[in-house]
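Standup notes
- DV: blocked on the single-chain target, sequence here:
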Amino acid sequence: MKSLHCVAAWLGIVASAILGTSCSSQPTAPSLFSLPTVTAEQYAASLPKDVYPDSRSRIPLIKREELDEKGKKAYDLRTAADTKSLAGLQGPGSLRLHGSGRSRAGASLEKRLQELARLVVSREMDQVFEWTVHEPVALKAGLDPAIIDVIRYRKSLDGVPETERAIIQLGREIFQKHKVSSETFAAALKQLGKKNLIDLCDLMGSYATTAILLHTVDLHLPADRKPLLPVP
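- DV (later): unblocked, structure below
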């Protein structure tokens, strides 16, 4: 009986050793979050041709000397050791330094183009109230009724002047595709310039926020106002 106990104990030791060796010899699973190591040159070469490596966007990093005193203070806040910015100079805050600032977004655009942008957002967001109150303002500001109908009915942009076409196409891609092609960006930059393009994006964002609010509370037009935007 004693010999049987010894044999059993020995077999247990051997089995443990085998299992231990087997487990320890298994390869370690790679981390789900590990990334291959690349050099700065390799990373830069992997970016699209219209993206600047320093900013990782289609707009280069802003230079401090290009800014006024208010802009320099904002720049310094993003580069300070104790900055609260999550992205420093390589995020939306730095991109906005190229523009007029959120509080003045679109102010440097002529009124006609501001109203064009508002109608584009209203159309893409199917926001009837927003469209209906702004269409008369757009007409008063000199926006061509034919262009308004192009937006209203999502018509082809053939024959639309270059600046208006660039803004409409930009809005369509942002809201329908959630991305902007290199060609559309280049056209908008050419027609508007860097500052106005940044301002246009902030202006569109502001009116998208308004559209979200109006949809959420289901704001209706007054009884005597006819809706001017067809929606599904």
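- Follow-up: The domain at 109-217 is CATH 1.20.1290.10 (AhpD-like).
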